[in-house]
Amino acid sequence: MALSNIQAPQAVVMIRPHHFKVNPETAADNAFQQDSAEMDKMELARSAFKELSVAAKRLEDAGIRVHIFEDESTETPDSVFPNNWFSTHSGGHVALYPMYSEARRKERRSDVVDMLKNQYRVQDVIDYSGLEQDGIFLEGTGAMVLDHIDRIAYAVKSNRTDPIVLERFCTHFNYEPMVFEAEDDNGVAIYHTNVLMCVATSFVLICLDMIKNPKRRDEMIKRFEYSGREVIDLTQSQIADFAGNAIELHNGEKSILALSSRASAALTAAQVSIIKKSSTLLELDIPSIELAGGSVRCTLAGVHLTPR
Questions:
Q1: Which of 159, 188, 242, 267 could tie 263 with a disulfide, CB 3.0–4.6 Å?
Q2: Residue 139 · residue 171 · CB < 8 Å
Q3: Rounded distance between C-alpha atoms, residue 168 and residue 201, angstroms
């Protein structure tokens, strides 16, 4: 795998929901969720199904390989966000994660893992999900934003990111943990690291203002700059519009930054100019799905495995 592709996967897994709804179980610590009580539930589900379908088609048209799975269950409202329950890693490794919400634990499915084993070179599957019984959680690449080049796992402290599991993951997968506290202007803690920041090959999208400890903030900036990445400092309002919840992909010829239409509209011309130095922007319109508190990054589980 070429260096330019280490950070950016060429394939993704997506889960198409048939009964999407906003999960009340996760609202307590997810300030990005919106109350959908007044909305027509069937219409919301239909909209989310269509949005995911169109997004998958646009990714395929852009040259990204999409493995799409159907979720017909009524018991998994957040299944559209698969990046939280599993991740894949170069060298043939797959990780399964312990989930904070009981409803979200039902999202794990063996057919996704079987597909990965059948179509890619998988050496092992490391399953951390049993730690749910001990009340400790690590929600995948929502809880962690991984720098696959410099081997750093950036992680915001939260109910969904336990330092014990993080340490185990970093030991198994050879990452250095970089833990920090982050909150918005109202003092509300950030629930997932991937709404705060996106690490691409040549740049980083991040809201530095939300990082509470100045020393840790300066250390992170130095890490980014040392790796040659340009830091794009986002505002808190841009984070609220999911501008940090993006993911760099690669179609074999060029890098693509996938993000939502809402997120793209929130970026300034200067910020877009920096991104376009190395990546093409791919806007995906998913307003119904974003009501659940996640955006494009959350809907895409990157495949960092070698095809068979």
A1: 242
A2: no
A3: 25
**Cβ–Cβ under 8 Å, residues 5 and 303:** no
User: Residue 308 falls within a domain, yes or no?
Assistant: no
188 found inside a domain? yes
Q: What is the pLDDT of residues 127-167, one digit of tens each?
A: 999 999 999 999 999 999 999 999 999 999 998 999 999 99
Distance CA 84, CA 140 (A): 4
- Alpha-carbon distances, residue 209 vs 183, 188, 197, 206, 236 (angstroms): 9, 13, 12, 9, 8
CATH code for the domain of 60: 3.75.10.10
Contact 141, 155 (CB under 8 A): no
Q: Is residue 289 part of a domain?
A: yes
Q: Output the CA angle 79-80-84, nearest 5 degrees.
A: 70
Q: Hey, which bits of the chain come out as E strands?
A: 11-17, 65-71, 86-89, 93-96, 124-127, 144-147, 152-156, 176-180, 197-199, 203-206, 230-233, 247-250, 255-260, 279-284, 301-303
CB 78 within 8 A of CB 101: yes
Range of the domain at 151: 3-303
Instruction: Quickly list DSSP for 57-106.
Output: HHHHHTT-EEEEEEE--SS-TTTT-GGGTEEEETTTEEEE---SSTGGGG
Query: Tens digits of per-residue pLDDT, 153-211?
Result: 999 999 899 999 999 999 999 999 999 999 998 898 898 999 999 999 999 999 999 99
Torsion 56-57-60-61 (CA) sign: negative
Q: Is 286 helix (H, G, I), strand (E, B) or coil?
A: coil
Task: Specify the 3-state DSSP secondary structure of 51.
Answer: helix
Considering the entire predicted model, what is its pTM?
A: 0.93
